[in-house]
Q: What sequence folds into this?
């Protein structure tokens, strides 16, 4: 019987090493080819190809970033958030009919003083024209103040004004809404000014709006229903006598509504009032308001209206001292005008809905405070 032999086989813990790569094929003369050695031409071609590829990738990334920045610029421009300093002589105000009286602005000097002291905190808004000039969309008073400062001082700092650039091609109706909504926030724009804009808007063939009713609804969509009704009434009043008025923006709401109601009820009165206004010198807003109130009461003819307006022998009464100021109260801003025998307080509020007893109490407290102050002086 044969004996079996036992063999111990030890398997290695690590895998077997890979076989070495075959050496490069020998050249014709029998010498091996070195992988690390290439001719200078091949090296240059390879490096140039890699550089071109890297350049193409970089250019593609740059184009993508430029496209992104261009879209972002257009977006910000549409929002009026791109601001630049625009020379005053490159800005025109002819595209939109303004909703502010351009002949008189007693607060323009205050705005000029503020700009001179601390600069312009709220840039105007302009739209660029095809020829590189600009059309004003928002900020007529700010632009007027800059022009006045530049004319007065000649300083270079006032030769150009900070302006937000609005993207080209916005429809005319949208541009009007931008202008109107900004001024609705301010409480000193009068019903006559808003009504005049509605009339002009309806007369502009480019707006596509023929009726004043529709113009008010579109322009003042942000205003309350009652306020829009007031604007419509003032628009009707201006349509009847507006060409004869010199200080329409000074007409208080109550007086304007009463005039419109009276002239609508008795149509011949409109022509009569126009004659009175044309034949009566009115040196200031108070004189014109006196004519309107006197005519409304039925106590004034043309000559009597002239005397009531402060005329003697055709000459205006001069030297009437007055004080104008603004006062901030919790419910808004009060505009006050005081002169001999008269004090007027005006703000955007319907005082006719306040209880009569509360009004009397408030008036009594007002004069009591005045008398107390005089006694302590």
A:
């Amino acid at each position: 019987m044969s004996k079996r032999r036992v063999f111990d086989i030890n398997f290695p813990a690590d895998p077997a090493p890979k076989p070495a790569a075959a050496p490069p094929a020998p050249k014709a003369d029998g010498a091996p080819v070195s992988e690390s050695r290439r001719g200078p031409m091949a090296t240059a071609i390879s490096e140039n190809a890699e550089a071109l590829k890297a350049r193409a990738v970089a250019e593609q990334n740059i184009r993508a970033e430029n496209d992104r920045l261009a879209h972002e610029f257009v977006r910000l421009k549409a929002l009026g958030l791109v601001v630049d300093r625009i020379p005053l002589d490159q800005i025109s105000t002819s595209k939109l009919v303004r909703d502010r009286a351009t002949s008189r602005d007693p607060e323009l000097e205050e705005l000029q003083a503020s700009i001179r002291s601390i600069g312009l905190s709220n840039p105007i808004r302009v739209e660029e024209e095809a020829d590189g000039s600009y059309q004003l969309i928002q900020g007529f008073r700010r632009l007027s103040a800059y022009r006045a400062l530049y004319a007065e001082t000649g300083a270079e700092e006032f030769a150009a004004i900070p302006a937000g650039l609005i993207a080209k091609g916005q429809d005319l109706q949208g541009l009007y809404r931008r202008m109107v909504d900004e001024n609705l926030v301010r409480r000193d724009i009068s019903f006559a000014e808003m009504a005049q804009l509605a009339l002009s808007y309806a007369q502009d063939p480019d707006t596509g709006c023929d009726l004043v009713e529709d113009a008010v609804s579109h322009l003042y969509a942000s205003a309350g229903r009652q306020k829009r009704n007031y604007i419509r009434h003032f628009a009707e009043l201006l349509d009847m006598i507006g060409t004869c008025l010199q200080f329409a923006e000074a007409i208080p709401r109550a007086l304007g509504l009463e005039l419109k109601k009276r002239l609508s009820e008795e149509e011949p009165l409109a022509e009569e009032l126009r004659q009175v206004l044309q034949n009566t010198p009115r040196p200031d807003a108070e004189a014109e308001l006196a004519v309107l109130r006197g005519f409304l009461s039925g106590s004034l003819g043309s000559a009597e209206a002239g005397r009531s307006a402060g005329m003697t022998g055709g000459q205006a009464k001069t030297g009437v001292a007055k004080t104008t100021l603004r006062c901030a109260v919790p419910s808004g801003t009060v505009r006050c005008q005081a002169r001999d025998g008269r004090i007027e307080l005006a703000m955007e509020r319907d005082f006719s809905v306040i209880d009569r007893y509360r009004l009397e109490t408030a008036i009594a407290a007002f004069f009591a405070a005045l008398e107390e102050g005089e006694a302590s002086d």
